[in-house]
From TrEMBL:
It comes from Ameiurus melas. PANTHER family: LECITHIN RETINOL ACYLTRANSFERASE. This is LRAT domain-containing protein. The keyword Transcription regulation does not apply. One of its GO terms (biological process) is retinol metabolic process.
Amino acid sequence: MYDSLALLLHRLVLFSDLSALKSAWPWQRARERAAPTPPPPPSFPAAHALPLCRGDMLEVPRTLFVHFGIYLGDDSVAHLVPDILPVLTGERALTAVTNARLVLGCMCRRASVRVDSVADFAYGATVRVNAMDHRLSDARAMEGEEVARRAERCVGHVTYSLLWNNCEHFVTSCRYGTPVSLQTDQFCSGVKAVVRDQRSVLLSLLLGLISIIYFGLVPATTLPTILISFTLWMAG
């Protein structure tokens, strides 16, 4: 067994040495210099040189969701952001919202409609303009000036709800007159599918039994197992 491992290690070392020598050959270096260098990724102004108009709805992809805003002109965007700091300090400075402030804002259901530059709003992501107009066939967009004015009147502190009053609700209310969130609808549909799947009941029972075996038969493990499983069974 040790002889086989030694032979394998020897071959790996020999292969790495040959690869290093191959890359050091003159013809290989000349070929690499002759190969075209891929262009660098475009900077923000080049990637987002869009003909924006006042009242346009902007959206940028984030890690788990899509963020929305209303273009106000002069390189400024109004958008709703969960933030706990203005509630605690009354600060209205347009500083970057950290992840901790955003999470605490979501937990405390506090947010603010801010005005930031397009670059700060996009945060390096690709900006899409008025893409919601094609997804909401029944909604009719208002005039751009009216959309921008409605957004400007909302600037300040607002109550935040991940499902009922998020950034998508804000922009659709300004542009179409009715708050709508397709992301919320998709999330609720997913939760509904999970709840209606009877395998969720079996999974909750299995996890409950594992917790009971690990932590013991105590109310902290028994009651959640019974309540969660019963709720999933009735809701399904």
